[in-house]
Amino acid sequence: MLNKSQVTKLAQEIKAEIDPNSKFYGRLLEWSDITNHYGIGLSDKYLFSTGEFPALLPMLKYQDKLKLTPTKALKPNLVIERLIYALDCFKTWHYGLLGWNCEHYARLVATNQALSYQVKLSPLAFLNNGGYNPDAVHVFNTYLSNLGLTNLIESP
């Protein structure tokens, strides 16, 4: 969960660190630690982690573990804009491994689908909508629509 000042600070940090010339810019990223993690690429220097504690992370720390996730995604500039608005939209949502995790969040931002393959492929998928978050897409698209940002509501 984030408060308004944290949302503002993160949005400013994202805007300050993006590089449209980077191969990572606006791309869905995955990396492994103890578990798999997901986020959005900002530049060759930074990625944005959509985990329990959303934050900019240095690419250098994850470069050996990092991969571009092969998925049909929105245009990178739209992904970055959606990421900034998603911070505010989901600031009060509670992180949960099965219902709203870093993969749900990152895939929603990048593809307009709140899907976690980690959950979908788990034995508990039947308890968790087959890996989909049933509310996130509707909530985010309604949020964007109410702000007059229908140009950010797309599917790849």
Keywords for this structure?
single chain, 156 residues, endopeptidase fold (from Nostoc punctiforme), five-stranded antiparallel sheet, 6 helices, 5 strands, 14% strand, globular, LRAT domain-containing protein
Question: Topology of this structure?
Answer:
Blueprint: H1 4-17, E1 28-32, E2 36-41, E3 46-49, E4 55-58, H2 59-62, E5 66-68, H3 76-89, H4 102-111, H5 117-120, H6 136-146
Antiparallel strand pairs: 1-2, 1-5, 2-3, 3-4
Question: What do these coordinates show?
Answer:
α1 runs antiparallel to α3 (76-89) and α3 packs across α4. The chain starts with a helix and ends in a 10-residue tail after the last helix. With 156 residues, it is α+β, with helices and mostly antiparallel strands. The radius of gyration is 14 Å and the shape is globular. β1 (28-32) and β2 (36-41) form a beta hairpin. The chain is 37% helix and 14% strand. It has one domain: endopeptidase domain like (from Nostoc punctiforme) (endopeptidase fold (from Nostoc punctiforme)). The protein has helices spanning 4-17, 59-62, 76-89, 102-111, 117-120, 136-146; strands at residues 28-32, 36-41, 46-49, 55-58, 66-68. The chain has six helices and five strands. A five-stranded antiparallel β-sheet has the order 4-3-2-1-5. This is LRAT domain-containing protein.
